[in-house]
């Protein structure tokens, strides 16, 4: 029976009872409890079911390494699955539910799987699901989907908030146990900027539970002194409930602060992700006790010896009335002693070592505890909880000497340093045969940019399990790390701890040594994923020699706990099966995060309105208030069209296009990129940037230009205006503003660094309004006395115009084929100018128009659009824009590429207009095909649609496309097979379908 | 059409209060000046307009509404009252005529915010990877970095008084970011607060 002791429990407050529920049942705990300790205090041993066999699972550990006690926490918008009960602090009103069972935890149908264990061997998934093929879709996949995953995915939007926090420190210490505290102190005393983080809610780690004497005082008191000293240091920051999640390149470390998980009513962000740049990082992450591999080691009531001790000392919880201790090292005796001192029954310590233990064993013996050396547990007895253990000789095959009644088995298979964070960024490990564990190899640490080690391990994380050695090690690490960041440690001696004489560990990977198949088949390595000793041995027999392959084949260590308990035991079993030493097998890769972190913490503030930046023009609010149907263009939102009354978007586009053609339309063109290029070499530079000449552009004139990349493919287009003798203004596409500016700067900074050219991206300085249509001039003339006549202000020129006291730069350019002006004013004036122009335009029946009308207007005129007619593989020549590719210039970016044979191939698909015979609108992206077949038996394609619209002007569908030999095939009819099996017959026509002579724009 | 058309900053009057305050600054004049920062002509015209000494790398010198900020090895941002920009630009063109330089009015290019309060640094540290601790980010330093997902620059007017500039199109995003990061109850308690 698992119960709460009347007194004791250093972390709980007996005066502060709390109520919580587990599967709807109300239970009591105390402030300071974890959910695990509170469940145990309520005699709740069975807390979940394993993944594959649905075996009953009890709490195994007391910390982050817990494989079994995973629960769903909270409800609705605060529901979260797969939360470890051992790291969940209890709060009043906590709601928890167990996972992976049906219909209930205690009676789970899925448990029949365990009787199928013989037909669910290692690699079952790989072997079973291959045949018959038809089963995959209808039987296997639905089955796997149904049974996959332990917890249920949340159904509601996350109700909490999250954030990031960036800090830069000299020394980061991960782990607030005694080693971390000592290391932080040693570093802090030098004046270095130190951040100390601890994943639990308490400083001191295991030391206060395990005891000892340092500098003549109890280790608990010593720890309190360290905390007080650190607290008083201005240069040291200490954060509890903050886990070191991952170590990355350049000293970048993620810390995961669980701010309000223990106090949901506190308000503020739930989790905070600390994005830490540390010059040096010390991993004082402690060690994790290993289970022992004996038959039935997964039955609820079998627990790590250190966890049994933790629950008793920290939380005043006795996991059992009679606790049998099984160990292969001295540490197990600590549990026996602790329990005995609390008045609990310890029927025996089963010590696998023939010679037994050291000083701790003597202490246990003196307390009257029975000690059996050279012995092992042959088999744990019980079903949903432990009832006893069959004891045998470790050396034998498991013939039972006696059965010992007990309701808890505390096992200690030795300790493994937590090397995860050390390993994340390339720190290497060495096998320490004396202590039977992998520990960080100080000669091969993770390296920083300067080639030096940037991470040091300290204390038990570094393999220093003994208190005295751990303290000295941590003190050294703290001083060294501070020194490496430019601080001078003062001389002084490290604290001294009394050392207990310990007997060496006996590596035990199977208990008993010669266990037969029946025993091994019930000996668990990975408790969450149900991987047994026999599974790993089978994998080895089937030829899986690499530990990484065996991991994936057996799923060992692939569960949410990532094998914190199972890894070393598993690879030891594998090594034995392969007949090689453990270091020859090696470990699997340690990857961040150390334990799972919330998706919310990763996203931080980036959700809802802050998910992505939304770029707004100065007229954005007006659009929003006037029926704009938005179209995302990069991070901008541009009006696609403006809906009036009951209009459909198509109606609106038709109305907008018609208004522009017949009278007047206004477009917010502010998003177009605007880059100033200035300097004595600016003309020469632009001649390289553009395919056509820009150096000879007259002052006050505009010219349409094309830009290619080095391969000769089109990347951007736009109108260039010559401002003065050495200044040009380059318009880019909306999406091109930033990358074309970067493209220019890259060439200037890396290739032509000696050219005298400066650029400035002034895109956002200007609001730009296109005033388009036969009445465009009439509108502007209402606001200015400047001469806007065709003679004074001809097509393809620009002019400074004063519009009602506002100085505007007006470009007479046209993307619609109509008389058109683009009016640029300072952005702050944009909204006012927009409002006034609109008011003035009313008498002309003007409309505002959006991007779709803009597209239709330009397509009617056969103007290309970057991103529609181009896709990164299209040249100016493909688009019949040879007129804009200079033949005189000796060079420009893309010239050489365009001379390559494939780009000169006469059979390249080239731009034409496409007109359906029935006047309908072609689907975008449709392909033209001939009757010929390619090698795969598919119809040969000879072209595709790049732009297609309904033209309100021509009252039929219009399209442009790229077609093989297109310009030579004017008038020909080609086939476009449709998705529904029909064929659209399409005539190849001139892409310019409206006002070929350009009379309308040039009036 | 005789009335004067009104010029507007990006988010006139926007303001939010949490553990720190966030206020939009309003219109301010700004000129980007690119040139040889070691030339005495460039230095003279910049410091003349800014009314402050020439800043070094990552430096900004301020006095009241004027400032000269180092933006890159060949770029300065000159700040001044909005109404004075044209005169200042004229002065630059006159002084640097014949030299290789670029000067553009960028007064409307950006939005500005003031983040004020004893924990103003924490608001920024939630959003920028730049080191904004008192030793790395004292008065006189300007950082061009990012806030959330967009570029931004920031400097201290005084302790507890941080000015942030970003592109005008993302003014709402940056304001929302800052206001969200400054929400009461989300204080981090990391940077020590001066007495």
Automatic annotation (TrEMBL), chain A:
<dbReference type="InterPro" id="IPR029043">
    <property type="entry name" value="GcvT/YgfZ_C"/>
</dbReference>
<dbReference type="InterPro" id="IPR041117">
    <property type="entry name" value="SoxA_A3"/>
</dbReference>
<dbReference type="InterPro" id="IPR013977">
    <property type="entry name" value="GcvT_C"/>
</dbReference>
<dbReference type="Pfam" id="PF01571">
    <property type="entry name" value="GCV_T"/>
</dbReference>
<comment type="similarity">
    <text>Belongs to the GcvT family.</text>
</comment>
<dbReference type="InterPro" id="IPR006222">
    <property type="entry name" value="GCVT_N"/>
</dbReference>
<feature type="domain" description="Aminomethyltransferase C-terminal">
    <location>
        <begin position="910"/>
        <end position="995"/>
    </location>
</feature>
<dbReference type="InterPro" id="IPR028896">
    <property type="entry name" value="GcvT/YgfZ/DmdA"/>
</dbReference>
<feature type="domain" description="SoxA A3">
    <location>
        <begin position="521"/>
        <end position="604"/>
    </location>
</feature>
<dbReference type="InterPro" id="IPR027266">
    <property type="entry name" value="TrmE/GcvT-like"/>
</dbReference>
<dbReference type="Pfam" id="PF08669">
    <property type="entry name" value="GCV_T_C"/>
</dbReference>
<dbReference type="Pfam" id="PF13510">
    <property type="entry name" value="Fer2_4"/>
</dbReference>
<dbReference type="Pfam" id="PF07992">
    <property type="entry name" value="Pyr_redox_2"/>
</dbReference>
<feature type="domain" description="GCVT N-terminal">
    <location>
        <begin position="619"/>
        <end position="889"/>
    </location>
</feature>
<dbReference type="GO" id="GO:0046653">
    <property type="term" value="P:tetrahydrofolate metabolic process"/>
</dbReference>
<feature type="domain" description="FAD/NAD(P)-binding">
    <location>
        <begin position="170"/>
        <end position="421"/>
    </location>
</feature>
<protein>
    <submittedName>
        <fullName>Sarcosine oxidase subunit alpha family protein</fullName>
    </submittedName>
</protein>
<dbReference type="InterPro" id="IPR023753">
    <property type="entry name" value="FAD/NAD-binding_dom"/>
</dbReference>
<dbReference type="InterPro" id="IPR006277">
    <property type="entry name" value="Sarcosine_oxidase_asu"/>
</dbReference>
<dbReference type="GO" id="GO:0008115">
    <property type="term" value="F:sarcosine oxidase activity"/>
</dbReference>
<dbReference type="Pfam" id="PF17806">
    <property type="entry name" value="SO_alpha_A3"/>
</dbReference>
<keyword id="KW-0560">Oxidoreductase</keyword>
From TrEMBL, chain B:
<protein>
    <submittedName>
        <fullName>Sarcosine oxidase subunit gamma</fullName>
    </submittedName>
</protein>
<dbReference type="InterPro" id="IPR007375">
    <property type="entry name" value="SoxG"/>
</dbReference>
<dbReference type="InterPro" id="IPR027266">
    <property type="entry name" value="TrmE/GcvT-like"/>
</dbReference>
<dbReference type="Pfam" id="PF04268">
    <property type="entry name" value="SoxG"/>
</dbReference>
């Amino acid at each position: 029976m698992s119960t709460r002791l009347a007194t004791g429990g250093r972390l709980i407050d007996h005066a502060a009872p709390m109520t919580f529920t587990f599967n709807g049942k109300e239970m009591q705990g105390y402030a300071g409890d974890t959910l695990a300790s509170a469940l145990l205090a309520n005699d709740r041993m069975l807390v979940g079911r394993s993944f594959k066999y649905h075996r009953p699972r009890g709490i195994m550990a007391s910390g982050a390494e817990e494989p079994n006690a995973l629960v769903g926490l909270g409800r609705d918008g605060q529901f979260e699955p797969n939360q470890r009960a051992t790291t969940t602090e209890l709060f009043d009103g906590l709601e928890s539910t167990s996972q992976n069972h049906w219909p209930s935890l205690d009676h789970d149908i899925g448990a029949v799987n365990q009787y199928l264990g013989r037909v669910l061997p290692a690699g079952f998934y790989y072997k079973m699901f291959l045949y018959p093929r038809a089963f995959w879709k209808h039987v296997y996949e639905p089955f796997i989907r149904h049974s996959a995953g332990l917890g249920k995915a949340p159904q509601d939007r996350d109700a909490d908030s999250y954030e990031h926090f960036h800090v830069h420190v000299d020394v980061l210490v991960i782990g607030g146990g005694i080693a971390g505290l000592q290391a932080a102190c040693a570093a802090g005393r030098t004046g270095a900027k130190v951040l100390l983080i601890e994943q639990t809610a308490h400083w001191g780690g295991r030391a206060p539970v395990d005891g000892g004497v340092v500098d003549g005082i109890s280790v608990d008191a010593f720890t309190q002194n360290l905390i007080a000293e650190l607290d008083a240091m201005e240069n040291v920051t200490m954060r509890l409930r903050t886990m070191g999640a991952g170590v990355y390149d350049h000293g970048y470390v993620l810390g995961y602060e669980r701010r309000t998980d223990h106090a949901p009513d506190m308000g503020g962000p739930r989790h905070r992700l600390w994005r830490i740049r540390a010059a040096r990082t010390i991993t004082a992450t402690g060690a994790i006790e290993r289970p022992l591999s004996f038959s039935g080691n997964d039955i609820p009531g079998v627990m790590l010896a250190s966890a049994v001790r933790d629950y008793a000392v920290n939380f005043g919880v006795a996991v059992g009335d009679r606790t049998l201790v099984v160990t292969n090292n001295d540490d197990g005796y600590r549990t026996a002693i602790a329990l005995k001192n609390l008045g609990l029954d310890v029927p025996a310590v089963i010590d696998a070592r023939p010679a037994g233990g050291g000083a701790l064993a003597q202490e246990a013996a003196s307390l009257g505890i029975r000690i059996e050396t050279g012995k092992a547990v042959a088999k744990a007895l019980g079903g949903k909880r432990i009832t006893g253990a069959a004891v045998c000789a470790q050396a034998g095959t498991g013939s039972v000497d006696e059965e010992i009644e007990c309701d808890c088995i505390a096992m200690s298979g030795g300790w493994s340093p937590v090397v995860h964070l050390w390993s994340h960024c390339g720190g290497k490990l060495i096998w320490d045969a004396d202590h039977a564990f992998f520990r960080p190899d100080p000669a091969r640490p993770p390296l920083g940019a300067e080639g030096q080690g940037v991470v040091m391990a300290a204390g038990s994380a570094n393999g220093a399990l003994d208190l005295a050695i751990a303290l000295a090690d941590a003190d050294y690490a703290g001083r060294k790390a501070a020194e490496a960041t430019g601080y001078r440690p003062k001389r002084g001696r490290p604290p001294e701890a009394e050392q207990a004489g310990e007997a060496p560990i006996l590596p035990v990977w199977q208990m008993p040594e010669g266990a037969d198949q029946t025993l091994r088949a019930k000996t668990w390595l990975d408790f969450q994923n149900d991987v047994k000793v026999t599974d790993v041995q089978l994998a080895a027999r089937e030829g899986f020699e690499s530990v990484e392959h065996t991991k994936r084949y057996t799923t060992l260590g692939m569960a949410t706990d990532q094998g914190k308990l199972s890894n070393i035991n598993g690879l030891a079993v594998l090594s034995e099966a392969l007949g090689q030493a453990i270091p020859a097998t090696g470990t699997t890769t340690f990857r961040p995060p150390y334990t799972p972190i919330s998706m919310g913490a990763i996203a931080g503030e980036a959700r809802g309105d802050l998910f992505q930046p939304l770029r707004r023009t100065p007229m954005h609010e007006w659009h929003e208030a006037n029926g704009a149907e938005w179209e995302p263009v990069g991070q901008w939102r541009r009006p696609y069209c403006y809906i009036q009354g009951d209009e459909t978007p198509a109606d609106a586009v038709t109305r907008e296009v018609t208004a522009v053609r017949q009278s007047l339309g206004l477009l917010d063109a502010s998003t177009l990129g605007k880059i100033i290029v200035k300097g004595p070499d600016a003309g020469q530079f632009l001649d390289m940037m553009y395919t056509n000449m820009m150096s000879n552009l007259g002052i006050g004139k505009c010219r349409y230009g094309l830009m290619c990349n080095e391969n000769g493919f089109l990347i951007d287009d736009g109108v260039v205006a010559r401002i003065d003798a050495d200044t040009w203004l380059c318009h880019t596409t909306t999406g091109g503003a930033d990358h074309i500016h970067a493209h220019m700067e890259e060439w200037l900074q890396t290739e032509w660094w000696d050219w005298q050219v400066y650029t400035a991206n002034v895109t956002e300085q200007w609001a730009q309004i296109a005033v388009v249509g036969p009445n465009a001039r009439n509108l502007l003339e209402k606001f200015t006395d400047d001469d806007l006549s065709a003679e004074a202000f001809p097509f393809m020129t620009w002019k400074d115009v004063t519009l009602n006291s506002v100085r505007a730069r007006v470009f007479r350019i046209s993307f619609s084929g109509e008389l058109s002006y683009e009016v640029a004013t300072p952005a702050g004036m944009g909204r006012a100018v927009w409002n006034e122009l609109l008011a003035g335009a009313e008498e002309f029946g003007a409309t505002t128009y959006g991007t779709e009308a803009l597209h239709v207007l330009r397509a009617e005129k056969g103007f290309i659009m970057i991103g529609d007619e181009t896709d990164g593989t299209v040249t100016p020549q493909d688009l019949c824009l040879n007129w804009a590719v200079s033949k005189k210039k000796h060079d420009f970016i893309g010239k050489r590429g365009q001379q390559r044979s494939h780009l000169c191939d006469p059979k390249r698909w080239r731009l034409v207009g496409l007109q359906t015979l029935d006047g309908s609108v072609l689907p975008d992206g449709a392909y033209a095909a001939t009757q010929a077949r390619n090698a795969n038996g598919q119809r040969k394609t000879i072209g595709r649609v790049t732009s297609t619209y309904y033209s309100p002007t021509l009252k039929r569908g219009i399209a442009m496309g790229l077609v093989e030999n297109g310009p030579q095939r004017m008038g020909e009819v080609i086939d476009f097979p449709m998705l529904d099996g029909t064929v659209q017959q399409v005539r190849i026509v001139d892409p310019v379908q409206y006002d070929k002579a350009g009379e309308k724009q040039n009036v | 059409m005789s009335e004067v058309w009104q010029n507007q900053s990006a988010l006139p009057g926007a303001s939010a209060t949490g553990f720190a305050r966030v206020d939009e600054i309003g219109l301010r004049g700004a000129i980007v000046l690119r040139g040889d920062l070691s030339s005495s002509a460039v230095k003279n015209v910049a410091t003349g307009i800014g009314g402050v000494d020439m800043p070094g790398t990552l430096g900004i010198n301020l006095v009241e509404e004027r400032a000269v900020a180092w933006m890159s090895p060949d770029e300065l941002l000159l700040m001044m009252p909005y109404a004075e920009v044209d005169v200042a630009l004229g002065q630059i063109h006159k002084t640097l005529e014949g030299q290789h330089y670029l000067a553009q009015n960028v007064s409307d290019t950006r939005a500005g915010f003031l983040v004020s309060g004893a924990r103003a640094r924490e608001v920024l540290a939630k959003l920028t990877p730049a080191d904004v601790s008192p030793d790395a980010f004292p008065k006189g330093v300007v950082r061009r970095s990012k806030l959330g997902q967009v570029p931004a620059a920031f400097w201290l007017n005084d302790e507890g008084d941080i000015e942030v500039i970003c592109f005008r199109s993302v003014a709402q995003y940056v304001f929302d970011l800052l206001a969200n990061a400054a929400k009461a109850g989300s204080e981090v308690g990391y940077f020590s607060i001066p007495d």
